Amino acid sequence: VVNGIGSITGFLYSCRETVDSPFPELTSETAVKCLELLKRIKNEIGSDEIFSNIVDYATMKIFDGGALFIKFYYMPGFIDEHSPYIISNMPGIKKGISGTILVGYNIGIINTIDEKKLLPAIEAIKFMTSKEMQKDLVLKESIVSGMTSLYNEEEICNNIQFCDFYKNPQLTLKPKNVFNSDEYYERFLSYFYDFLFRNESASKALKKIDDLNKIYHISINTKEISNYIPKFMIQEILILAIALLNFITLFISRLFLSIFVEEDENSKLFENFSLTTAQTMIMENSINISEANKDKNRKVSAINNLFLKILEYHKRNYTFTETVIINTTNNNNNISEHISKTISIG
Prior knowledge:
2 strands; 346 residues; D-Maltodextrin-Binding Protein, domain 2; 15 helices; single chain; mainly alpha; 3 domains; extended
C-alpha cells in the first residue's frame, strides 16, 4: 500500500510548474492533468497488468535487463557496474523538473527511557548522524545520506556511482496520515484505482483523496454563512427545488385535465339542453350557440360553468314538470275518451 502511495506522490510532485513550486494541491488543475497523463501512459504504452503488479514486474526487469526505463526505489548497491541501467532523476512534466519520494528510517529516543541509558542513547545518535560516520557509509555505498553536501566533495564523487543523481534530488514526502490509520492509505489507493483502472474522473478521485484529511463543519455564525455556502447545501436546495417544481407541474396538469373534462361535459350538456328546452332563447342572448358547436373544446369561464350548472338544475326540474304535464294530459284524454264512449253507448 505504502509503495503505491509513494509512486503516486512522486509523480504528482514531478508535475509542478517550476522547480521551486510547492507540492500541487490535490484538487488543483495541475494535479488533475497529472493523473490524466499517468492514465494516458498506462493506456498507450503500458497495461492494467503492469500497473497493478508494478513492484514484481519492475524487480524482474531489473534483473533480466528487459526494460528501457524502470521506476523503482533505489537501494545502494542494487545497480552495479555490470548492470545495463544507469540511475537518473525521474523526468517531470517540464525540463528540469523532477520528483523523488523520500523514504527512510526514523531514529528517536523513547520518552520513558531510564535516566542511566539516556545519555548513552544520545551519544549513539550523535555518532550515527555525524558527518564522519555518514561519509564513511556513503563511500562504502551502504546508504544514501541526507547530508547532500557530502556529494559535493571530490573524494566521494570520484569513488561512488551516480554522484550527480545524489547532488540535487527534488525530494518530497508521502502525504501525512493525520489520523495515523491504515485505513487512510487503503482508501487513498482505492480512490486512486477507481480512476486508474475504472471510470472515475481524475477530479472526483482527487477530491475524495483530499477529503480524507479534512473535517468539514457548518458554522451557525451568520457572517460566516453569508460568505460561504457548503456545496452539499447547494445540492440539497437544487434537489428540493426540482422536486417542488415537479409537484407543481403535476398538480397543474391534473387541474387543467379536470377542467377540460368538465368543460367538455358542460358543453355537451349545454348543447343537449339548448335543443330540448323552451329556454333556448335565454341562452341565445348570452352565448353564441353556433360558435359553441364549432369549438366544443373552447375554454369556458368560471361564470359560464356556474351558469351551466344552474341550467342543469333547472333542466332537471323542467323535465320532471314536463313529464307530469304529459302524464296529466294523457290521463285527461283517457277520461274524455271514456266519457265519450259511454255517451255513445247510452
